[in-house]
Amino acid sequence: MHASSAMREKYVIAGIGHTAFGKLPGRSTLSLNTEACRGALADAGIGKDAIDAVFVKVPTSAREFMYGQKLAEALGLRPRLGGAWDQGGAANVALIAHAIGAIETGQCDAALICYADTPRSGNRQVYARPRGDDAVYGWFSTAAGYAMILRRHMIEYGTRPEDLAAIAMASRRHGAANPNAQLRIPLSLDQYLASPQQLEPLRRDDCCLVSDGGAAIVVMRADQARSLGVPHPVPILGIGQGQTSGELATRSTLTTTEAVAASSRAFAMAGLAPKDIDVVQIYDCFTIAALMTLEDYGFCPKGQFGAWAAGGRLEIDGDLPMNTSGGLLSETGMPGLQLIIEGVRQMRGSANLQVADARNCLISNQGGTMHTHGTLILGNMHG
């Protein structure tokens, strides 16, 4: 047996919690994290005395020194282990992997993993910052990098706006049915094509929301969850990561991502393949990111996404429902952890738009401009 396969179903997500999403003036990231963590503990049916590790993703728009320790104090905890981590939107999956490693080596027994940010009501300038020496040529904003990636994908594979629309329409349809979503407006193909250009060839509806909010989960061993009487633990089947340090201009390719490495590790650990996945929650900061992730995960061949996704394949009544609570394009742009929470709901059978008889859910997290990637595979809590 491969060493990683022995970890399959040994660990669970025991609890989930989140705040409202959208514009939340007057809230600090500490208060949002605290609210989400309280929700996750209540969902797990445990008190905070069961927690001895706190891992938090660094707030993107409001970085603070020793933020992990400040959060632990706000929670009224003195954990054995904790701190803040930054891999952009991939940090959430990375922190689950760190928590599992820490528990496996006896450093802690149960971990809170959380993230909160306030770019909507606070400072969103981090997303518009200049990008290195190339800023003198107009290289500003996160969108600029993804626009370049999309342009390259169009050149190499003939990708069309209609292909990207399939992703936007699925996320927006599902978000419109989610009472907690920030943007609850469905999107038609004609509306997508009429959407104004933000940074050519990216349209407005290719770009995710800017959102305030917080989210949290509890990770522990499956046997500990049983002994504590956790009511709805969801097993972790596989996890994988990948990253590159290269900036866009220095990369050998712009159309293959670290999703290849991350998913290969996750699938191997889970003993599964793309054909075994019933529902996906894919990081859709921009539609091209989701398109390339699905290609690199092996759901469809490179350059054939449009034909593969046709006919509503990614929608709730399709073959592979994606972002069933709305994703970053509709539920909240607060990156990553909400996708994991929706994956947990799907595996519990409690999602707002529930995929019938779903056994396995794959979740992607991504950071930077295709710099980091995390893949998580969850199993049905009923086995």
From TrEMBL:
Q: Which InterPro entries does its entry note? A: Thiolase, Thiolase-like, Thiolase_C_2
Q: Which UniProt keywords apply?
A: Transferase
Domain Thiolase C-terminal, first and last residues per copy:
240-380
What is one Pfam family matched by this protein?
Answer: Thiolase_C_1
* Gene Ontology terms for molecular function: acetyl-CoA C-acyltransferase activity
Q: Which domain of life is it from?
A: Bacteria
Protein name (Swiss-Prot/TrEMBL)? Acetyl-CoA acetyltransferase
Species per Swiss-Prot/TrEMBL record: Pigmentiphaga litoralis
Q: Mind giving the lineage of the organism this protein is from?
A: Bacteria, Pseudomonadati, Pseudomonadota, Betaproteobacteria, Burkholderiales
